[in-house]
From TrEMBL:
Record key words, sorted: Iron, Metal-binding, Nucleus, Oxidoreductase, Transcription, Transcription regulation
Domain of life: Eukaryota
Ranges where the record places region Disordered: 675-708, 732-781
Keyword NADP: no
Name of the protein in its database record: Lysine-specific demethylase JMJ706 isoform X3
Coiled coil: none
Domain JmjN: 60-101
SMART domains named among the record's database cross-references: JmjC, JmjN
PROSITE patterns documented for this protein: JMJC (PS51184), JMJN (PS51183)
């Protein structure tokens, strides 16, 4: 199972039972500073004798959408992002409320719900080799009600009150307590798998798209493309706190957006730093918070590595004094807090409360997602997301989407800004990949199509995902991405080095060139506002005679000709045939530690520029337990350099003859209905363009036999020879069919009720798509 970052916080974790005050013996093993884990002492670098700086922190923006604006969260967030992102965080007041309280959900709808807490030392730290903070597991399990009673008892004992207190007063209390107070520690139940949104059909908020169990999989969310669920990233987690429970300064994994909903209880105070000020934040942390002896390297990346542990807490006045902007939000029940890409944030609870959070991403995330991937690579950290695959897939879907003539009329202006980010990032990636391949070929390497088209491998050196291409040689048997000049220059393999590329690389490059023709795209690329990958000095020198997208020879070997064991390369197919490749994550890669009991979701991408997309159910055999979205691209192998939207693949005479024989045997039959259980609708954006991006159903033998049994509502005999011939038919649409009623509409989460038929040849024999009931009852999130 994939996990969020932050595991460093538990490096020194042990069980401390339920003794939270005065018993440090349980922490003494394996850590020289653990015996003083809760001991307060004066930290000179943090002066909290005067708390007047609290008044200097401005409030973040607060948005109060109408019920109509509240209809689609990603549409609304895309609309406010240009304004709100400047502050790093913002608050949204929900116009509708939950009718089923979170406590009732967790105690009744989820009977037996229990959780463990972490013990947080309530003190400041020197942040040197001998004094740093870790959050320890308590070793005690709570029910929701038991934790509420404990937290309320602590609050009442301190303030002789059970009601809420002014936010400004509690903010001063928190920073005074953390510097000079007598409380040793608090407990915080963070990163708890689950959700407090009700499943009741009468709960308006639970039924809405703002239910965090659904949000990351909405049509405009980039994370909908992931095959597997990631707790806390694609699936929400609960955060149950008490007085002064804190979440330390951190940035979201991969610089993603986050959304946090306050279900119930006391308020929370948030501090946020805008994403554009993140470098300044890291510089201040490196120079004024961390001592050099605890950093593993030089520069801000060393500080970033420690911040990933999510245990660093220090007062915001340190940032204010060094010119880093900070904004504040006080979150109340029924309110959402949004954090924007690369925005550092921290905060604390005013008493017992319950919140829930999840990540999401829209198109404007891609440039910052590239920066995060680059930093993970420098730190040799395994990424949670396959960035290259997400970008390439989103770009191809975008091309299909904007091909709809009416799209530009209907799309809001914010949509085009988001799309521009996708296009610029994709163009930069394609330009980098092409230039890198050209230079490596110039050094003597060859290029071949890779056979493991269903997988995204990780670079053996930096752990990046190698979706587009990777290198192998006799020296380095494991895949290596194209960013390691020293390895490539020092490698003696020369001609024995092979670059493996995806079979649809030419289609992707053609799409990048199409994007470059649009106004402003190349200007952004040349300014380096996208991935900024061309700044590598190795790939910026020695390029005499190079031009973008110039032809590079791609070898096509028979499987037995490959110089690497297990590396099979597809040979060219006969004219008019198709090759099916897959956009997906390999079950053996680190991305595919998929959850069990997850729903399989096969994504049959519609016909895109430079490619024809279709569904192939056989590719998913053996992965019933994976939460999978697989993208398959069907393309012609002849004249690949000149493929176009209008390319048509016509069944050969053998296939036509099979249909003639079948139709002759049953002259009264006009239609064949294929019962496919694999095609699922994933995106409303694809559905909107399906009239121009239609695909056939599946052509597997199993589906054909199912169709045969359902012909005219009863069984009929078909010869084995005809079955075999028909099972091999490769169906594609032509331009006329794509504009007619012969299209399959996609709508995420259910199959089309009645897929229009697809004309095959001059006869009026038709093939219809699947019915809606083949996947009913499956949960999507």
């Amino acid at each position: 199972m994939m996990a969020r970052s932050g595991g460093d916080a538990l490096k020194a974790s042990t069980s401390c039972g339920i003794r939270l005050h005065g018993n440090f013996g349980a922490f003494s093993q394996g850590s020289g500073y653990a015996k003083d884990a809760f001991s307060k002492h004066k930290v000179e670098k943090f002066d909290l004798s005067n708390l007047n700086w609290i008044e200097k922190i401005p409030e973040c923006p607060v948005f109060c959408p109408s019920k109509e604006e509240f209809e689609d969260p990603l549409d609304y967030l895309q609309k406010i992002a240009p304004t709100a992102a400047k502050y790093g965080i913002c608050k949204i007041v929900s116009p509708i409320s939950a009718s089923v309280p979170a406590g009732a959900v967790l105690m009744k709808e989820q009977a037996g719900f229990k959780f463990s807490t972490r013990v947080q030392p309530l003190r400041l730290s020197e942040w040197d080799a001998d004094d740093k903070i870790s959050f320890f597991m308590s070793g005690r399990k709570y029910t929701f009600r038991d934790f509420e009673k404990m937290a309320n008892k602590v609050f009442a004992r301190r303030y002789s009150s059970t009601g809420s207190l002014p936010s400004r007063f509690l903010e001063e209390e928190f920073w005074h307590e953390i510097a000079f107070g007598k409380m040793d520690s608090v407990e915080y139940a963070c990163d708890i798998d689950g959700s407090a949104f009700s499943c009741s059909p009468t709960d308006r908020l639970g039924k809405s798209k703002w239910n965090l169990k659904r949000l990351s999989r909405l049509p405009k969310s980039v994370l909908r493309l992931l095959r597997m669920a990631i707790p806390g990233v694609t699936d929400p987690m609960l955060y149950i706190g008490m007085l002064f429970s804190m979440f330390a300064w951190h940035v979201e994994d991969h610089y993603l957006y986050s959304i946090n909903y306050h279900h119930c209880g006391a308020f929370k105070t948030w501090y946020g730093v805008p994403g554009h000020a993140a470098p300044g934040f890291e510089k201040v942390v490196r120079e004024h918070v961390y001592n050099q002896d605890m950093l593993s390297g030089e520069g801000d990346d060393a500080a970033f590595d420690v911040l990933l542990g999510k245990t660093t807490m220090f007062p915001p006045n340190v940032l204010l004094e060094n010119g880093v902007p900070v904004y504040k939000a006080v979150q109340k029940p029924g309110e959402f807090v949004i954090t924007f890409p690369r925005a550092y944030h921290a905060g604390f609870s005013h008493g017992f409360n319950c919140g829930e959070a999840v990540n999401f991403a829209i198109g404007d995330w891609f440039p910052l997602g590239a920066v995060a991937s680059q930093r993970y690579a420098l730190l040799n950290r395994t990424p949670l997301l396959p960035y290259e695959e997400l970008l390439c897939t989103e770009a191809m879907l975008l091309s299909c989407k904007v091909s709809n003539p009416g799209y530009k009329v209907l799309a809001p202006p914010e949509e085009f800004l988001s799309q521009k980010s996708v296009k610029v990032s994709f163009v930069e990636l394609m330009r980098f990949q092409h230039r890198a391949r050209w230079l490596i070929v110039k050094m003597g390497a060859q290029i071949e199509y890779k056979s493991d088209v269903h997988s995204t491998l990780l670079c053996s050196i930096c752990r990046r995902d190698c979706y587009v291409a990777y290198v192998k040689c006799n020296c380095i048997l494991d895949p290596t991405c194209l960013r390691h000049e020293q390895k490539l220059l020092s490698c003696p393999c020369k001609c024995n080095r092979i670059i493996f590329v995806r079979e649809n690389i030419l289609e992707m490059e053609a799409l990048a060139q199409k994007f470059e023709l649009e106004e402003g795209i190349l200007d952004e690329v040349h300014r380096g506002n996208g991935l900024s990958q061309l700044a590598d000095p190795f790939f910026c020198t020695g390029t005499e005679g190079y031009s973008p997208y110039c032809e590079t020879k791609i070898e096509a070997r028979l499987p037995n000709d490959s110089i690497y064991k297990g590396e099979c390369v597809n040979k060219p197919s006969p004219a008019g045939s198709t090759i099916t490749t897959s956009f997906g994550l390999d079950e053996s890669s680190s991305f595919s530690d998929a959850h069990t009991n997850s729903v399989r979701r096969n994504f049959s991408v519609a016909k895109c520029p430079q490619s024809i997309c279709s569904h192939d159910s056989s590719a998913m055999e053996g992965s019933d337990d994976s939460d999978s979205e697989v993208f398959r691209i069907k393309r012609r192998t002849t004249n690949v350099g000149r493929s176009s939207i209008g390319d048509v693949t016509v069944p050969n005479s053998t296939y036509r003859q099979a249909f003639k024989r079948l139709r002759k045997a049953y002259p009264d039959v006009r239609h064949v209905r294929l019962q496919s259980e694999s095609i699922q609708e994933t995106s409303e954006s694809v559905r909107e363009t399906s009239d121009h991006c239609s695909v056939p159903a599946t052509n597997s033998r199993q589906n054909f036999e199912t169709a045969s049994r359902s012909w005219k509502g009863g069984a009929f005999p078909i010869s084995r020879k005809i079955k075999q011939e028909l099972s091999e038919v490769k169906l594609t649409n032509d331009d006329e069919a794509s504009k007619s009623e012969n299209s399959v509409r996609f709508n995420r989460g259910e199959l089309p009720r009645e897929s229009p038929s697809i004309e095959l040849g001059p006869k009026r024999l038709k093939v219809k798509g699947p019915s809606t009931k083949s996947i009913s009852g499956h949960a999507l999130y």
